[in-house]
Amino acid sequence: MSKRILVIGPIAPPLGGVSMHISRLIKLLNNDFDFDFIDESRNCKPEYFNIRSLKFYTYFTKIKNAQLIYIHSGKLSLRIFHIVSGKIFRKKIILTIHSFTANKSKITRIFNQLFYKLADKIILVNPDIKKYLFLPQKKTIIKEAFIPPSLEEEDHLPQNIQDLVSDNRKNGNIIICSNASRLDQYNNEDLYGLDLCIEVSRRLLFRKIPFFFIYVVSSMEKNADLFFKTKDLINKLGLAQNFFFTSQSLSFVKLIEISDIVLRPTNTDGDSLTVREAIFLNKLVLASDVTKRPNGVYLFRTRDIDDYESKLVQLINLNLSKDLSKELKKDFIATSKQDYKNFYLSLLKHT
To answer: Rounded CA gap, 351 and 347, in Å?
Structure first.
């Protein structure tokens, strides 16, 4: 009989870094374990039990019936709630911390640590998180959240996106893309650097640099008004022909595949799936220096628009004039999908 594993976290749709990680993980291991789910996304799906339903009898029944609880929650209070619930029923627990902001108070960090230590295994998606949390070394694993995509299994891009890219390529434009799971704020600034992307596009247009920018928002929950205000701003700045801002449902990795440059201008981050996928697909990647990035990623100073512009122009010129094969470095691509599967098989079987 297969081991019963309860996966807790955001289940797609909408697609974000964590929900994509969960989706690929399940596809990778679906024949090896008996999976059940507790969804935490705001988009309730009838096929999944959602924590927001507040049906605690169902919740605790799922906890009780699981042999292993695998937590991917982004919200600190939910992480703690799931850990405590699991331990009440004496369950084995794996906790993946996909992001951790450095500006939390020392008391908050200590409080979190006390509960995180109750987990049997703790996965940190980048080594920077370890600087802020003192966790038992024997329980802690540093492992990127990336799992290689199967491009043949990804949905084709919407026809309008394909046509836009094709037409702009014919006109000699460099294709740039970036994305956000939501239009969230962090420290009263755009978490995903949308404002920086609009401003740098205005500067590129002023410099008469040939480009076409596609910016994708996975979900408009909570901030639909901001989405439409941003649309208006793009039009007012005269960027409508060069900056396509959309909330269409699409496979972002397929968009990366047909782009030249991928941008990740976030002002906080864990281990970005977008960055990993772009490097995996041999694309030029420019990202903020807010956290440690994989080899091959070009960095700019976080929230520094002048440095952002300067580095992006360098990459555009590089794309236009050089053989990129010597520029693209990868530090994890040699790892096959089977290697990832072996890692997670061992983790889930022996926890």
So the answer is: 6
